[in-house]
Design a protein that fits this description.
It is a single chain. The chain has 906 residues and is of the alpha+beta class. It folds into four domains: 3-47 and 141-229, Distorted Sandwich (Calcium-transporting ATPase, cytoplasmic transduction domain A), CATH 2.70.150; 263-308 and 688-756 and 765-894, Calcium-transporting ATPase, transmembrane domain, CATH 1.20.1110.10; 314-339 and 541-675, Rossmann fold, CATH 3.40.50.1000; 349-535, Calcium-transporting ATPase, cytoplasmic domain N. 47% of the residues lie in helices and 16% in strands. Helix 6 (86-119) runs parallel beside helix 25 (726-745), helix 11 runs antiparallel to helix 24 and helix 18 runs parallel beside helix 24. The longest helix has 41 residues, at 677-717. The protein is elongated. The two termini are 57 Å apart.
């Protein structure tokens, strides 16, 4: 947006809503048409802030040279040039080029993978265009669009309010004011500060309560947020905790390696070996010992895991969340849409005149029936009123055409009420035309009700819907076949009992009530007339029971925390296998003491509870803290603006992608595209797989590096010829390190990984047992190589160059076979997660081909100073390289097997 464009809509907060609409050439009722949208998109551009500069391929390539290891290699190459070792210098430069190419390719893939993930999480906005309410990508908003906002939305542009209902916004991101700001339609002074512009909503702020309509007055860089962002320097990308731990590991290894370098170089020079050879050997040892590929391979493993999760409908916002997922041992889950299908249909209507069943098919011949006999809602005034209330007190909308559900927007419960009205011939557009909406009392999660005011015969018709117990408390009268009468205590007891019975069958219960008032200022929730109890059916999701059982096997505690009724929660909990019987306790929110009042036994009792009902957002926070106090890693699902604090407090916040508010999605670490609980479990499983893969390739890399260091170090100490030359070490570091390690990092993992308990989140990448294994495996490979070298020199009486070829090939193949030692203990020798990994076989095939090439292609063999071994030489190489594998398999088989637990209480 240019400065001229900004000036054209400047000062909207000081103008009336009608003036703002007139200046922008738009009708509130119809919105913009397609031609206007296209023209304004051309004029103003996409509604986007200036994106952080994309890392180009050239920048990624340059970054490959910003490495201590590359510096050491370059120093060795320059030293070789000075000493006129032309072949060595050329070979080292070639190694630098190959190493850079591999690093560039892997990092390029990782960066592009992350960019692809970010594109999958596009924000949407609800607007009125061509007289219909539609949902569009937020970057397609243009000045003049009529934007519809509700509690939980992230505002996508700067907008001038034209209608509000208890509207409040959190503008802390823009103004620093932590308290939500109440909004109104009335204009304010033109010189008012941003925080005082009550008639405006700003891009990037969050609607915390209420609802409203507004006209877009600025988009993209023309918004207040755009102006601020243009002044902000780009922030450096922060490494994940795992990357930091791996980087620290590499730096620690560097200091150890530098010490070994000095010892090897000084020892060799003192004993008469060529200075240039020992210096190059010392540098090569540094390259061999430092796992330079760790950060890149780790990023690839994490990014690939995130893409796998995305294919399973789980979008992860932060790389660090992937590693945390693997340690999750408590999952707080909502009921509606997560454990259930969130495909609500109005199943039953309970009136004072009896129960009415509603058919599920929209085009059914007999959609309404009482006692098996068809009922015409047009001839049943109480049934019709109940359906009308559900249609009027509603913020959802249906699409036009044969399939109104195809383009329906809004909460599934409200959509279900509109569909029920449609079955009765009650269309919202016609009903609102006859009874125009004049005021809305937005849904309040504290009082659990919503109300709308409509014009009716010179008065105002108030339509109320909400939680049955809340609505019942506000009712003084009841609608009957003989008219209205007072609501007696027996009536209250009857409706309360009926509500509990139907909720116990798994129905989601909703009550509707009404009254007539003379003034719009009349309190909506007082002296209401009870009309009906509505029962909505939302079946459990397929696969949820299996997912919960999987959690039980994995040692993960699943806890349902819902705002629904206890009986409904218990019914669904039993249906999905969360509880075993209907006697399992359900704790209501009102019965949960504040944290200060809880004793130690109270805390433990609450931790043992599986079902919580009628829970407030504040109580969700307290429950999360309660489990975190006990050392648990908590994942929390949420969809509403009030869930945002709990999503932030949990180690893994999981937002619903379909029904979740934008505020919830912004506060979360992971977004479920399908809102399914099974997707959470799949993501936890993938988190475990990724961490185990990273641990495997770290273990593999370090044990291979240790073997290379030990081979040269021991030979130097005992004054023997070097079993492996510097360039050969560099070659092995590229071939037998990178490709097999990468194959381990992208593997599918052990299919039984969810049969194990969660890992301790504070557990390092490598425990003491892993360091012991690194020393053991490195020692075994070293013994095999030195043994082959001794056999070649003394037993086969080969010259030094031929013997070095034998030891080089032994080391190379021993490291390749070593990948099979990375299988989990307790898995089969021939069938395990390593042998089942196709990338492992691809890496082995590539590496074997490269080893044969450098052995038999004359030019390559001359560079690495290799000679082709005869049949006897290959026999020694094969036997000696398999000894570490055989010994490693024996050790793995002798280790105690991981206990695979059966179903148990978690």
């Amino acid at each position: 947006m240019t400065q001229d464009d900004v000036a054209a809509v400047a000062g909207s907060w000081a103008k009336t809503a009608n003036d703002a609409l007139r200046e922008l050439g738009v009708s509130r009722e119809k919105g913009l048409d397609g031609e206007q949208v296209a023209e304004r998109l051309r004029r103003y551009g996409r509604n986007r802030l200036r994106e952080m500069k994309r890392r180009t391929a050239w920048q990624i390539l340059i970054d490959q040279f910003k490495s201590l290891v590359v510096g050491l290699l370059a120093a060795a190459a320059i030293l070789s040039l000075v000493m006129q070792e032309w072949i060595d210098a050329a070979a080292i430069f070639a190694v630098i080029a190959i190493n850079t190419a591999i690093g560039f390719f892997m990092e390029y893939k990782a960066v592009r993978s992350m960019e692809a993930l970010r594109k999958m999480g596009a924000v949407t906005a609800r607007v009125r265009r061509g007289g219909e309410t539609v949902e569009i990508p937020a970057d397609q908003l243009v000045p003049g669009d009529i934007l519809i906002v509700e509690g939980g939305d992230i505002v996508s542009a700067d907008v001038r309010l034209i209608d509000t209902s208890k509207l409040q916004a959190d503008e802390s991101a823009l103004t620093g004011e932590s308290v939500p700001v109440s909004k109104a339609v009335d204009p304010v002074k033109e010189k008012a500060e941003i925080a005082e512009r009550k008639s405006m909503l700003f891009k990037g702020t969050a609607v915390t309560r209420g609802s409203g309509e507004a006209v877009v007055v600025a988009t993209g860089m023309g918004t207040e947020l755009g102006r601020i962002s243009s002044l902000v320097e780009e922030a450096e990308q922060e490494a994940t905790p795992l990357e930091k731990r791996l980087d620290a590991l590499g730096r620690n290894l560097l200091w150890v390696t530098l010490g070994i370098m000095v010892i090897v170089a000084v020892t060799g020079i003192v004993r008469g070996k060529p200075v240039i050879l020992m210096i190059e050997t010392a540098v090569a040892l540094a390259v061999a010992a430092i796992p330079e590929g760790l950060p890149i391979v780790a990023t690839i493993a994490l990014a690939r895991g995130m893409l796998r999760m995305a294919r399973r409908n789980a979008l992860v916002n932060r790389l660090s969340a992937v590693e945390t997922l693997g340690g999750t041992n408590v999952i707080f889950t909502d009921k509606t849409g997560t454990l259930t299908e969130n495909r609500m249909t109005l199943d039953r209507v309970f009136l004072s005149t009896g129960e009415v069943a509603i058919g599920q098919e929209l085009g059914g011949q007999r959609p309404f029936a009482r006692d098996g006999q068809p009922v015409d809602p047009q001839e049943d005034p109480i049934l019709r009123e109940a359906l009308e209330i559900g249609v009027l007190c509603n913020n959802a909308s249906l699409g036009s055409g044969r399939d109104p559900l195809a383009k329906a927007t809004g909460e599934p419960m409200e959509v279900a009420l509109l569909i029920a009205g449609l079955k009765a011939g009650i269309r919202r557009d016609q009903l609102v035309r006859d009874h125009p909406e004049q005021r809305e009392e937005a849904f309040d999660s504290d009082i659990k009700m919503m109300a709308t005011y409509h014009a009716a015969d010179g008065q105002h018709r108030v339509a109320v819907k909400g939680a049955p117990e809340a609505v019942l408390d506000c009712c003084a009268r009841i609608r009957t076949a003989d008219g209205e009468r007072d609501l007696s205590d027996q009536d209250r007891e009857h409706w309360s009992r009926l509500n509990a019975q139907m909720a116990g069958r798994g129905l989601r219960m909703l009550a509707v009530a009404a009254k007539r008032v003379d003034s719009l200022d009349t309190e909506p929730y007082r002296n209401l007339t009870w009309v009906a109890l509505l029962g909505l059916h939302d079946p459990p999701r397929s696969g949820v029971a299996e997912a919960i059982e999987k959690c039980r096997m994995a040692g993960i505690r699943v806890i349902m925390v819902t705002g629904d009724q206890p009986d409904t929660a218990r019914s669904i909990g039993q249906a999905v296998g969360l509880i075993e019987d209907r006697e399992s306790p359900v704790v209501r929110g009102r019965d949960i003491k504040s944290p200060d009042e809880l004793t130690r036994s109270d805390r433990q009792e609450l931790r043992d509870v599986r079902l919580f009902a009628r829970v407030s957002p504040k109580q969700k926070l307290d429950l999360i803290a309660l489990h975190q106090e006990a050392g648990s890693i908590v994942a929390m699902t949420g969809d509403g603006v009030n869930d945002a604090p709990a999503l932030k407090k949990a180690e893994i916040g999981v937002a619903m992608g379909q029904r979740g508010t934008q505020v919830a999605r912004e506060a979360s670490d992971m977004v479920l595209k399908d809102d399914s609980f099974a997707t959470i479990v799949a993501a936890v499983e993938q988190g475990r797989v990724i961490f185990n893969n990273i641990r495997k390739f770290v273990l593999y890399l370090l044990s291979c590096n240790v073997s290379e260091v030990l081979v040269v170090f021991i030979a130097s100490i005992v004054n023997a010829p070097l079993p492996i030359l510097p360039l050969q070490i560099l070659f092995l570091n590229l071939v037998t390190d990178v490709f097999p390690a990468l194959s381990l990092g992208v593997g599918e993992g052990d299919p039984r990984i969810m049969d194990q308990p969660p890992r301790d989140p504070k557990e390092p990448v490598l425990r003491a047992a892993h360091w012991l294994a690194i020393g053991l495996y490195g020692g075994l490979i070293t013994l095999g190589v030195l043994g082959a070298f001794w056999v070649a020199l003394d037993w086969m009486e080969l010259d030094t160059d031929e013997a070095i070829t034998i030891s080089f090939l032994t080391l190379a193949f021993a490291q390749l076979w070593h990948i099979f030692n990375m299988r989990n203990r307790g898995t089969g020798l021939l069938r395990n997660e390593i042998t089942a990994n196709p990338y492992v076989w691809g890496a082995l095939g590539l590496c074997v081909g490269l080893l044969l090439a450098v052995t038999y292609v004359p030019l390559l063999a001359a560079v690495l100073q290799l000679t082709a071994p005869g049949p006897n030489g290959w026999a020694v190489v094969l036997i000696a390289s398999l000894i570490p594998l055989a010994a490693g398999q024996v050790v793995t088989s002798l280790l105690p097997k991981r206990t695979l637990r059966g179903p148990r209480k978690t």
